[in-house]
Amino acid sequence: MAVALASTDRLASLAGRRPTLATLCSHSSLQIFHGARTEGFATLGLCIGAPPRFYDAFPLARPDRFLSVPTAKDLPSVAERLRSDGAIIVPHGSFVEYVGADRFAEIDVPVFGNRAVLAWESDRRKERDWLDIAGVPMPKRYEEPSEIDGPVIVKYYGAKGGKGFFLAKNREALADFRPTGPYVIQEYVLGTRYYMHFFYSPLSDRGYRVGHGSLELLGMDRRDEANIDELYKLGAQEELLKAGIRPTFVVTGNVPVVLRESLLPKAFDVAARIVESSIDLFGGMVGPFCVEGIMTEDLEFKVFEISTRIVAGTNLFISGSPYSDLVAPALSTGRRIAQEIHRGETEGRLAEILS
Ligand code: AMP
């Protein structure tokens, strides 16, 4: 059964016109604009201050127009202007982070996807509840340092880009731990990281059926994280600490990966559970999301995070990935978003994919 996410009021600005796809000039905006243009949409780049010059270097991804605001916090104030342009906002990770999840949820402009997801994703405890309900394996969580029985990662809430996370080899290594804010202690999972780019279409009635729509796998990457990824070159942890070097997990880039084919059923199973429970909990996620986890040597996949919108790792696959090539030619996630909006328009079902 179709779920309407957007009210008729919310969609009034789109009545009888071709929408313009708008996003913040950052993160995965080149891909979003390129995909929108490929599917025949007009594009609008929202920018903080002057339009970034680097767009001039990428003519196929340059938005048709720019709209500048002094700071990201001012974006909600141009809502009326966006509505009068018939804009649909396509969110990405930086967009939501810069504006703030609460303010973003209130923007009075049609947004691609279900904004109810923000409340579940932006709070690590709620996200964990969601994954628990979905029955997805996750790293063990320790309530008290005394329970620790192996290596752990300590995560401060809101630690940007993993800065402020730290690792401890065992309970003893945390003996002097004096927290400086709210935090969680998680099992440090040893294995290989995979960031899987899925797309859930509530409009589709073919393919890998989940909920009332279908699930696609469009790509996969691994993040390059400074400085943890290269620390091994400097030797053992204690020696590093003595030298004042603490590991950080600041994302600096992405590399493409593929998963052993025999592990794909596991990947789809986890993603399908996450979608199904999102439908029960808040009417369902729509569009791109990323399942981020670690495959252990026992081939167990433990999910440490989900991102419920386009992730920057998809930028690797503007002209397709080893997975999206098997869905359709030259299919980026940005282009897939534009296709979904196009389908919503032509079938009169925008209320199911916008909020
Ligand atoms: P997060 O902010 O949760 O996405 O984590 C940032 C980075 O920390 C990830 O990309 C991983 O490299 C690492 N990480 C997070 N949680 C774990 C975990 N439980 N075990 C091992 N590595 C982790």
Structural write-up:
With 355 residues, the protein is α+β, with helices and mostly antiparallel strands. It folds into two domains: 8-132 and 192-223 and 258-352, ATP-grasp fold, B domain (D-amino Acid Aminotransferase, Chain A, domain 1); 138-189 and 233-247, ATP-grasp fold, A domain (Dna Ligase, domain 1, 2-Layer Sandwich). It contains eleven helices and 14 strands. The protein has helices spanning 8-11, 29-38, 79-84, 93-99, 101-106, 117-121, 124-134, 228-231, 237-242, 264-282, 333-346; strands spanning 20-24, 42-48, 65-69, 87-89, 141-142, 152-156, 166-168, 183-187, 192-201, 208-210, 213-227, 249-256, 287-295, 301-307. The strands form three sheets. Strands 9, 10, 11, 12, 13 and 14 form a six-stranded antiparallel sheet that branches. Strand 1 (20-24), helix 2 (29-38) and strand 2 form a beta-alpha-beta unit. The longest helix is centred in the last third of the chain and has 19 residues, at 264-282. Bound molecules: adenosine monophosphate. Residues 139, 153, 162, 165, 186-189, 193, 223, 225, 249, 292, 294, 304-305 line the site of adenosine monophosphate.
